Amino acid sequence: MFVMTKLRTTEDLRAQVAVWKADGLRVGFVPTMGALHEGHISLVELARENADRVVASIYVNPTQFGPGEDLAAYPRDEAEDLRKLAKAGCAAVYLPQTLYGDCHSTLVDVGGFAGDLEGEHRPGHFEGVALVLTKLFNRVAPDVAVFGEKDFQQLALVRKLVADLDFPITVIGAPIKRDAQGLALSSRNRYFDDAQLAVARKLNVELGKCVDYLKSGMSPETALEYARAAILEAGFDAVDYLELRDAETLGPYEPASDARLLTVARLDGIRLLDNMAVSLP
């Protein structure tokens, strides 16, 4: 078992990665914002299966939060995060104080991602994600990077970013990790009390029913209409979006292609993001 190294400067990070690569070792990378749960740990474990050494980063990235979002309140627990990463066999953790200098002004254009789904409801979010990942990829220089499928649109963005900017990185998507009742694990779930969790756990149920409607031959328009109404009746305040999209391009769904059902529902000011694969005849 590796003794995990804590790296707080870019110089130390690059020096450690250079040593590994000089020895011919493959480096895996799992970027996080901390407040780690079993979903994050499953990413580390998958990275270990595909690399010799794994680096995780912990950085609450300000550029992907919009006005009025929970940047200041976002849960932070460095000591517990480090304990979990060490137990999972992470070789090193990168803990930068900031990734942006006072004169930082360069942005990353994310094209159509900016105005679609999460991009529409969180203006500037994906630009911030693309920017921080560009900087982290340049600093870590991984061979493999692992991202969860819970943020399915983000995973598509990462793959596009890596392809367009010629990063020599293999991007791996990891299956959604859920609790015993099917709720997709998220750092923000800790905001909920027991009563709110009981409502939150209904989102996955209603998505599953919507998939069943679609597989039974119901039209997407009708199935989505039923599902939106059911999510609201389950106790959610609003549905930001519920869309059936092409699983590869995230463009409009076309019959005979793999599909993905994507949603965000709001509960007492917290946005729950989830998605589900759909294989239609």
According to CATH, the fold-level topology of the largest domain is: Rossmann fold
Strand percentage: 15-25%
Based on Cα principal axes, name the global outline: globular
Total beta strand runs: 9
Rg, alpha carbons? 19 Å
Integer tally of domains = 2
Cα end-to-end separation: 46 Å
Biggest β-sheet: count, sense, barrel?
Answer: 6 strands, parallel
CATH second-level architecture of the largest domain: 3-Layer(aba) Sandwich
CATH superfamily of the largest domain: HUPs
Mean pLDDT: 96
Mind explaining what this structure looks like?
The protein has 281 residues and is an alpha/beta fold. Helices cover 37% and strands 20% of the residues. The chain contains 9 helices and 9 strands. The protein starts with a strand and ends with a strand.
Task: Describe the SSE topology.
Blueprint: E1 5-7, H1 10-22, E2 27-32, H2 38-50, E3 53-58, H3 78-87, E4 92-94, H4 118-121, H5 125-140, E5 144-148, H6 152-164, E6 170-174, H7 194-200, H8 202-215, H9 220-233, E7 238-246, E8 259-267, E9 270-278
Parallel strand pairs: 1-4, 2-3, 2-5, 3-4, 5-6
Antiparallel strand pairs: 7-8, 8-9
Helix pairs in contact: 5-6, 8-9
Quick overview of this protein structure:
The protein is an alpha/beta fold. The chain starts with a strand and ends with a strand.
Keywords:
281 residues, alpha/beta, Rossmann fold, Pantoate--beta-alanine Ligase, Chain: A,domain 2, 2 domains, 6-stranded parallel β-sheet, 3-stranded antiparallel β-sheet, 9 strands
